[in-house]
Records
---
Amino acid sequence: MDIPLSWYLTLAAGLFSIGLFGCLTRRNAIGILMGVELMLNAVNINLVAFGRYITPEAVAGQVFAVFVITLAAAEAAVGLALIISIYRTYDSIDMEDINLLKW
Amino acid sequence: MLRDYAFILIFSAIALSVPILGLSIAWLLRPKKPGKIKNATYECGLETFGETWVQFKVQYYIYALIFVIFDIETVFLYPWAVAYNKLGLFALVEMFIFIAILVVGLLYAWRTDALEWV
Amino acid sequence: MITQIAFIGIALLTLAGAIGVVLARSVFVSALFLILSFVGVSGIYVLLEAPFLAGVQLLVYVGAVAVLIIFAVMLTRDMMSEETPFLNRQWGCGGVMAAVLFVLLLLIGFIADWPVSSAKPPEDTISALGEALMGKYVLPFEVASVFLLVALIGAIVVARER
Amino acid sequence: MQFLDNLFLNISQVIRNLVGGFLPDWGVEVVMMTVAAAVLVVIAVVTMMFLTWMERKVVGRIQDRLGPNRVGPFGLMQPIADMVKMFIKEDITPREANRWVYNLGPIVVVPPAILALAVIPFGRGLSGADLSIGWLYLAAVASTSVIGIFMAGWGSRNKYALLGAMRAAAQIVSYEIPQVLSVVGVILIAGSLSMQRIVEAQNVWFVFLQPVAFIIFLIASVAEIERSPFDLPEAESEIIAGYHTEYSGLKFGMFFLAEYISTFAVSAIGATMFLGGWRGPVLPGWIWFLAKTYLLVFVVLWLRGTLPRIRVDQLMNFAWKVLVPLALANLLVAGLIAAIINPAETPGFWTFIGFLLGNLLLIAAVVMVGVLRAPEMEASEAAVVGAKGALAGQ
């Protein structure tokens, strides 16, 4: 317990911001998805850190982290399937080219 | 608890140093005579033909996809198995439902030939 | 003291990986940096005394999600040539946004008075997790399986060639 | 005997006393850990060299040859000669390759193989670290080995290398599921993921309680380390040499190192989880452990000497349509029996009878399904062959 809670929060905030930056600025759709994964990891660090420091006797933080990991993996699976499908239709996954909601 | 993981940290550092050390020694010992033909991409002696990034089929992705889903299933299975002796029959029923729902997914992939390597 | 040094080392590794993800030109190299970042996060879980999560992080993120991402990279040829920028035109704006968010999150993290407890975590975390999943969180647990089923079928339908 | 049994613990105590004279407590800890880690790494490298020799001898005998017999007695110095050759071979980096990724590939491949040794109990209380997540750690570390393969394949910029890497990844990923599922039964009976606890729980070896799981584990593990008959990703007749096509000299050697250490690690894990690990009468624990491990290593080599390589579609079908359903069925049977007789409280004999009955029922069910589906399978196989013939005819 000699690491203060705020250190973990700083790390998570940094990771989340970098993920957000990648998400907003990458042109490649897979790059955007990787940004989202980074953000989810930052969230998980926060969940586990709060669980460890504020309610150490319960494992709620870890249970939630497990569910977030489940969610992140399923999100990656469906998201990448969509990207592959888009690539097949447009022959590109550059998000600058894909700007129509409906054709 | 952290003591054990400190060992893992030291161990991974030493494990990583094996290939680095080996390759550095080999770098000092080996001859260096690069040549135009020698450094070409190896394709059974023929000139490289077409693009390197060939288009792979989507089948690879489908396998990885089913793998990810079942990998997560095992994440839920391990705590269940460890705590099983304390939990009893009700836990078995819960896990049975959990697996049954996922087996539906496997059967779906099977029936629609998503598992077929073509 | 030693744990603090370990934390700083692992945190820097994680952040360096994350920055690499955002700034690497090639998507494949981005994915490799992402793996580095994932490994770092698993180290953080160890420091937080959640070894089970650290294992799961490696197993699911490095062993599964990263493989999925790399497969997707291989299936969609990277069209970006050396000249085209790999970031879009709003990168300045996005950078400012991310920086502002970072400062805000830091403010909240440091100003708020978290009720830190000094209790000990349970001895056998894995067993405790199993009991929690089968007891208190049984509904989310079953919903998770339905969710995974939906994701599996949906992704197969979307990804398959017709 | 007592002395031999505690040999390594005594040696470590001697070192501890020696160092303790002039170092603070945490310094002693660090020195002890470094020494233990270095010993494990040396064991890994020596094992690799021994296994290359053993493989050539065993396969040679199976094929009615002598195997290496020129360098040193029984050819025992052959691995040394090979190693010297690896070190002084010229290294070729293809012009087109992505230098960073290409050169890092062989470096990333080795650690996952070595890291597995950290939690394997070589004897009572004789393991690098007795982690509470033991088996999960092993599975997690093993699953990271795909990354190095991808780096090798992508970095070479060679389409055969990339294809080999993709195939290897698809195969490793597919066989990982039956492997991790087959172990759940063992964990369920032992009630812990820690390797030491699993060994201590084996009053009856788990191979007798979970025979089906053991067979699934063995097959899936051989496929995981890409050994014959599952060595498609690196088979010369398939795609040159797969992801290490472009590698030469010691960089190529690194892939070999990783493969042989994994072979040893997988056998050691199998011996620990199913064959009772270091437990056995009379002889010291670590001798029992090594004997069981090398028995499994021999089985792996024997498979290579006996079975032909299987086809890629058979490979994938076998993982998903046979091993995964079987592993799931085995898991449910194990859960059901453990619910009826609590293995922690029932005497070993009755546990044994219960699980044996369950496994027999499971095998009977599998045979039934096989007999019922055999005509159907043949028909679908014929249809596939017919369709391929029609395509070829066009």
---
Amino acid sequence: MVNLEEIKKEAKKILEEGKVKYIIGYAKSSNALMAAPTFVKKPEDIDKLIWDPTCFQNLVKFLIDEKRKKAREKEPDTRPIGIFVKGCDSRAINVLLQEKFITREDVYIMGLSCEDVGVLDKKKIFKKLKGEKPEKIEFDQRKNIVISTKEKTIKIPLKEILAERCLECTSSFPVISDVFWGDRNNRSPKEPFKCLEQIESLSQEEKWDFWQQQLSKCIRCYACRSVCPMCYCDECVVDSINLAITADTTAEEKAQKIKWIEKSPESSENFGYHLVRAMHLAGRCIDCSECERVCPVDIPIRFLNKKLEKVTKELFDYKAGLDPEQPSLVSSFKDEDPEDFIR
Amino acid sequence: MKKRTGVFVCHCGINIAGTVDVKNVAEELMKHSNVAHSEDYVYMCSDPGQKLIENSIKEHSLDSVVIACCSPNLHETTFRNCAKAAGINEFQCEIANIREQCSWVHKDKLKATEKAKKITHSTVERVVKNKSLEPISIPVTRRGLVIGGGIAGIQAALDMANSGYEVVLVEKSPSIGGHMIQLSETFPTLDCSQCILTPKMVEVSKHPKIKLLTYSEVQEITGYVGNFKAKILKKPTYVDPTKCTLCDECIDVCPIVVPNEFDLGLTGRKAIYIPFPQAIPATFTLDIANCPGLLPIACGKCMDVCEPEAINYDMKPEIIEEEIGSIVLATGYDLYDKENMKEYGYGKYADVLDGLQFERLLSASGPTMGEVLRPSDHKVPKEVVFIQCVGSRDPELHCAYCSKICCMYTAKHAMLYKHHVPDGQAYIFYIDIRSGGKDYEEFVQRAKEEDGLVYLRGKVSKIFEENGKITVWGADTLAGKDIEINADMVVLATAMRPAKGAEEFAKKLKISLDKDGFLSEAHPKLKPVESVTSGLFFAGAAQAPKDIPEAVAQASGAASKAIIILSQDQLFHSPMVAKVSLNLCTGCGMCVDVCPYDSLSLKDNKAEVNEVLCEGCGTCSATCLRAAIEVKNITPVQIYEMIDASVGG
Amino acid sequence: MNENIYIPKLAKIIKIKEEVSGSRPIKTFRTQFIEKNSFSHQCGQCAMLSVLGKGESMISISSSPFEKDFLQFSILKMGRVTSALHETEVGEIIGIRGPYGNNFPIENWKGKNLIFIGGGIGLAPIWSVLHTALKKKKDYGKLTLIYGARTSKDLVFKEELEKLNEKMNVHLSVDVEEKDWKGYVGFVPQNVTDKKPSPDNSISITCGPPIMIKFVIKALEELGFEDGQIYTTVENKMKCGIGKCGRCNIGKHYICKDGPVYSWAELKTLPQEY
Amino acid sequence: MAEEFEPKIIAFLCKWCSSAGSDLAGVSRMKYPPNVVPITVMCSGSVSPLYIFNAFQKGADGVLVSGCHPGDCHYIQGNFYARRRIALVKELIEYIGLEPQRFKMSWVSAAEGKKYTQIIQEFVQELKPLGPQKKLRREK
Amino acid sequence: MEKILTKKSFPAWIKKLQSYTVYSPEKQENLWSYEVIQNPDKLNLEHLNTVLAPKKIIYPQREIFLQFNTSKEGKPQIKEVLPEEHPAVIFGVRPCDAKAITLTDKVFGEEPKDPYYWSRRNQTILVGLTCNPPPSPNCFCLSVGGSPHSKEGLDILMTDMGDKYHIDSLTKKGEKLIKAAENLFKPASSKDKKELEKIQRESEKKIKREVKDIKNIPDKLKDMFESPFWDEEAMSCIRCGICTYLCPTCFCFDITDELTSTLPLKGKRVRTWDTCQFPDFTMHSSGHNPRPDKASRLRQRMLHKFQYHVENYQDYLCTGCGRCISLCPMGIDIIEILNKVIDHE
């Protein structure tokens, strides 16, 4: 069992020793159902830290900010960043290591096992609460969640409100860490890609109708890419501006920047964006599902990523984020890669 | 400035104009805001046609041109030269293929014209964004490297050295000579292999331009055409060749006996040895793998007896670095492994020999001094069965290819056997006889007719030893019956395989291999000695099974190709190479992984292109998630515009 | 029905002059509306130029309002739209909407000495007011221009600058030493300090890259200029030109509407987000 | 009578094999429908998924990517990377509901003019009953 | 004019509004969204906050400004594209969202007026609904000068009174709408009015979240521009556009050209929503960015809403709908930030 006090003790120790620059962890937010990222710089602030199934966020995203900030500083503090990492988050760290975006020395990984739980799905709870504001939540034996609103207190089995990806998670503990709390029990859901069956069983036209309906909702707030730890480019290929401008970017380079998609939230452009996004995450997505969680219009984005995860596994026996040393999916091949689709 | 493009639509007589309304194509493109001039002409590639283009370029101050005509494979160079003559950069000229890919394959004039417009429009979009480029010049180190000291390597090294270039010849064994020096007599002329090869070996050793490194292995080759760097490991022989007098005293005292490679295990040798009497360099080698130890306490007998004090146990491996302009690879072949041919008793029965072993038996310098005696009991074999295609031409179980030389050497073997044992009987199992080559067919006929060899068409199913005889079960498919021969000796014409370690070596050099593991040439017909990596050439059996004359011819071919590079002050490379946008690159290294030419590397967390190595394939560009790398003049933005034009948007 | 403010008016390019070549080229475009007198502007105002298919870009009008027949823009090739503008040829038609923003209060400056301080392409916004002042020279006191660029090749309006020498004090500078350069060597703010324009009864108008403006203001303050005597222009990214799209918002101001001309006294009250 | 629907096809052909193969079809005067506009690229490995999505967005009714047979790549292994990448694209666009017939990959060697011709003929035949591709196409 | 309409008759009223495009909140899976009503009988006004405010109807995320068509010779053709003339009614508008429309009215109404906005705005009738209970746990309209039964910006305000609606017609446009089915309405009795007052009072009590001392916020913010406070608060921001795209008052936009043909060059100029939270929003083409980091962008959002807009229009650019709080992926809470601002030393 993960013991929060032990985590705090370690946090305090490494902060006092100056071993880390700061610690990225979770704290309570104004919303009882969702923790907020917190950045603990001083040992006296460690009491803010929490660890429970409301700790949704994949904090690895903030390592990108840190890297950018460091690049701007003249004499950067090169100490590692302490970071709370769940099983899925740790795979994100591995991908960043694999793609040489960070080095192992940049992070002090504080691994937390989700054990037999995981994180909540806010939307599922929302459905159960029918709009009432939760005032307080408690966890009962890691089996149930007890939610109190103004009017009532309800007890819901955790299984009913855990995030889908947690129910389908295969390794709920970090695969890479410097310190670790909790157990390393592997879960093995019988059918890891069962969630895709429903869409896959649709006819071509039904599939189209489904995605057309879902993707036409997109308002292109880009929260899915903003939250994704794999989306660390200074400038996204689908943006038509030239953000990564340096002093020697020529006018011509800026002028030639391709508009792969238009800014208009039209169906074609939304598809363009989401297809490129999915492609660029093939072999990189570690299924933290943050993209889907943050989507304000409830697009089931995870089903796009998950599909490619499945294809990648089945066709190429490739799984993202398990080994920082393996070559990337698209920068490697095997002689026996399937080609039955090729004429 | 806005590009001023000229569009020239060729009629190609009626080849294009018969199906495509060329005037209409020219008119349509004139609507393009970058097209400053467009016209059509009956034969653009003719002298007047080219003159017309030149004049138009000058008259309309064009800075780029699109020629809508036949395939770029035919006249791209013509028109680029023409553009150059008119004063514009050759890379500002592109070809729109409206003949092979349009007029010749369609009938409907209206639709073909529409398609021709799209193709031409798309090419205009490309050229509008083309940059003027200059070929990349590369300095040349005028020095060659030959890897492998068999007949092919020797020939290549001599040809290059005799043309006046310094050559480094690297051989992994203690002597040059390769397999040819093991042979007895050579088909079809039956001249003595050693007699014809040793003079060449001596020439190599004496040649002032050749630096011979035996008992050495190339460990690494970096760099690129004209500028390779080779790292060569020279293994210690523990004998100083300048002091060694070849007195043989050390051999006499050495207590260790191991199978002799030169005789393919038919004889033994000591741990300190000279591979064969005519070895070049003529010196002893202490075989450290078999020597009981270098410490004098362990043995040290050889050192004790060596009067000239040539033996030095403290000799260390040496890394030699050489700068090289071009390389000839002649790593040769080995025979198909015994392990693979157990059904023929190969490796199990002493009297089942392979072709090379039999060569040694026939050789005057061999274990039997040229007498044919069977290894088991040193008796003269009276019945010998020769089996062809052992391991070759057997796609299911062994090698799919034909080893090419076996028909000939088996005929030679049987013939020489008969010369040695006139009352002996030679049977040859064969699938069919391949005797293409100068005087080859005559040779085989002579063997059949004059020496009374028995050729049996069919395969051998089983070989087993019984009562001191080797029983061969086979089939004569012509006679349609099963055959059993109780032979004294069986000689297998085993398949030729690429030399051991060649695969690993090729991987190190990033040379691709064919499915059989032989070196893969750049083009099977037109570039048979070139590799895809420029500056690297192939000679001999490393590329495919070859006989001596072929190996020699190819070696001379490879040498002349290598000399072409060495003879130039500088080389030129296509400037259509990858270019990195440093501000977009995050240094993930995926492009480095996919580059087939090792032209990309990471420097300060950014990808860096070695333009000389880059062949412009663009795989890096499609792999990069950040669009941070592209190939000049076929950039994503050009493709983007071309797609627009091609859908007719 | 009100006029749709987002629809550009068509104007023909009647003259193009290459001011600066090289990797940061500048060209001056003279344009004429197809429908006459589509608008008139005041010194310091901007207009939104359209290249259809590429987009719009806000450019300051460098011709004086006295010039009724044409509008003139000097444009540094910078991004998508300005690159497209640099590709146009005489006779081509572009779109213009505007004029946008406030103007230099030249009426209030009558009788005063005017010191124009510019760097690089920053001379363009000044050019309009400078020419207006020249036209009514007797209304004003001493006119001075302090102008510099990276190299002599990067100076705009070179020929006019030479002629200008006869009518006013012109002090040119280049950032680094070069052969045959007779003027000042050093950055524009240093040249200001060196030339010591007097603050008495003077107004200074400065325009250039943000970093230059910052140091010029410092230099002027050291020379004794009051905040109200220093004028400059702010050019943030703009899209609508009418204070709605929100891009050029700084504090309570929208630069396209409330700017781009500011006295240092005014500008000081705004957050430094330019 | 309404004119028969003529699908627009973009074909990304590698320069060394497939484009040469299509040249051979020309030299041999084989006939195939004029619906395909070829874009010759250096290697099938250089075809970015973005090109494919973009072609559909711009109104292509079908897209073909064609390279050298495995092992024959002029650039040694570019087509192997392409094979992997294109497999992903193919799965993805089928998954979102675009008709799988609209996207094809083929190996066409320089000697396979006939094969190229057949591929185009079949492709056009398969696309005709599907009608125009409107799903990913931008409104005009 | 106060009327009573039974819930049973409500669909009948809507059926009478055939000459209008009628919008109402519709539940799609978990989310509420304003959609054109297909079936008046299925209308349900018990909606929680819609993801997007009715702003999206009057000021759509994408608006075509003009179409152009060029040729190499001759002058280009530019065609203005104004929205079609089509009157619309939006039912179930929450008072905060209606108030928000009055705020954008001011921005787009300031000379020169925005023709696209007004062409839609003038044709739209807003029928509000008193928030009882509040549609979001993060409602704080009371703190920013609104209320769950505010009439500001509405043409009609409806209040749910169990089996009937209290209908308060506020403008001529509203009158017209009632006139379309006059016989369905009964005048409100004094008892009804009393009940209404009670409901309204209760509805205010149900608003649980508040900003302390909001009147002092603008002044407080003025002195906080340089404060490291913003760096701290923005640490967890991921620079997405949720807070602003979902905000009923945010109005920033971009104008871009989209091509439909390249030979000849044809296309359209479109307006799309944009947000100050995107890094490229303020970036000059030189690469210089006056607001280079997320701290300065969060600050801009806060200052624009609670200082600059107040200076220009004497009103907060925030109506307390709580959307940005509920949907911020990282739990950034505008109320908490404001309360911290007040406590800031």
